[in-house]
Amino acid sequence: MAPFSTLFTVFTVLFGATLAACAPSNTGLLQMVTHVKRRPDFTQEEFWKYWETQHAPKVVPLATYFNITRYQQVQVGGKIVPTAGGASAPESNELVDFDGIAMFLYKSADVLTEMLSHPYYIEVVEPDEHKFIDKEAYGNGMVATYIGKHIEAVDKGRDVWVGDKATIKKYQKIFNTYL
């Protein structure tokens, strides 16, 4: 089991950031985007394979139980400034590596809080994170986390934007002149 202080730190950062982002959107959902760093003894390919084939199946029952709308993994690497969830500025201007992006779409701060404090997360999911995520890195391996309102503009190839209809009509008309 993970040390209480590590879980408490992760929980506090995510809970605070989620509360800060609770304003409703046209979907009524919040989006959390987290840049994740792999353990140094994993290649990027090994990290991606483990994350997709071993870790995701552990997350799925928990996420579905808490009605998480969407859990996605983006297999991509790069560099980013380290930023804690809810922070208004990065921790430093020195770039850090990341090896994937985890995205969660959920109803409220309470949902995420309950999920991260559930015994299954504490006993199964969180210990599994130590197998492939660099928990020594900034943010326990979650090197940059952003939480905000989820606004949809296009979904499944269709316009779902709920803004001013005259504005969308104006730009659709302009676009049509290019066809």
TrEMBL record:
Claim: Signal is one of the keywords in the record: yes
GO molecular function term, any single one: oxidoreductase activity
InterPro entries on file: Dimeric_a/b-barrel, EthD_dom
Pfam families the record matches: EthD
Signal sequence range: 1-22
Keywords: Signal
UniProt domain EthD: residue ranges: 39-135
Protein origin, superkingdom: Eukaryota
Keyword Membrane set for record: no
Family according to the record: Belongs to the tpcK family.
Name assigned to this protein: EthD domain-containing protein
